[in-house]
Amino acid sequence: MDLSSYAEYAVRLVNTSNPATGEEELTSVERMREVLPLHSQAVHAATAADLPVLREVRAGLREVFEQAAAGRQAAAVAALNTLLARHPVSPQVSGHDRRGPDGRPDWHIHLAEHADTPAAAYAAVACMGLAIQATALGLDRLGTCQASRCSGVFVDTSTNRSRRYCSDRCATRANVAAYRARKRRESTAGRGR
Question: What's the predicted TM-score (pTM) here?
């Protein structure tokens, strides 16, 4: 299993709120299950008591992304290390009784299978996944969306380090807005001749 894929847990958790608009998606256990990774055992086992913990972890993760995006790498690392200390991983080798194509057990590593609470398990996986991606790709690959009124985050895995938006939706909206602004300027400049 590619442990760096667990960074998506961090991205998804942070993107459950938008401070720019006040939107909040962690309003209930049911809503949490809709917006966080479905394959997470922690999400399936979560209760209402886990929501405040996840919101607190989300704030810490958002700080990591914002510090990294602002070029303050030491502050981003300090924030991430604080989260890692609060939410340590508990790795476990698992095979789920599955067999690989060669008939041998499909052994792989899971993180935080024995955490005290579902929120602690999710937090540990998200923080460790983000730490793996940040150290493998570089902290400059952690970004915040450049679209107006969006505060989404992302891990830039593009080959040319060019990602600027958290989603295709934000990229499209920004491109359409830029196109319309250009057309308005051209129209205004054409009338002035």
Answer: 0.85
Domain boundaries, the chain: 3-141
Q: 3-141 has which CATH code?
A: 1.10.3300.10
Render pLDDT for 7-35 as a digit per residue (tens, 0 to 9). Answer: 999 999 999 999 989 999 999 999 999 88
Taking every pair of Cα atoms in the chain, the longest distance, rounded to a whole number of angstroms, is 77
Is the predicted pLDDT of residue 157 greater than 80, yes or no? Answer: yes
**What's the pLDDT score for residue 65?**
98
Do 175 and 146 meet the contact criterion of CB atoms below 8 Å apart? no
- Nearest to residue 80, comparing CAs of 23, 175, 7? 7
Strands 108-110, 92-94: pairing is: antiparallel
In 71-191, where do the E strands start and end?
A: 92-94, 108-110, 142-144, 153-155
3-class DSSP assignment, residue 97: coil
CB within 8 Å of 80: residues ≥ 6 apart: 64, 127, 130, 131, 134
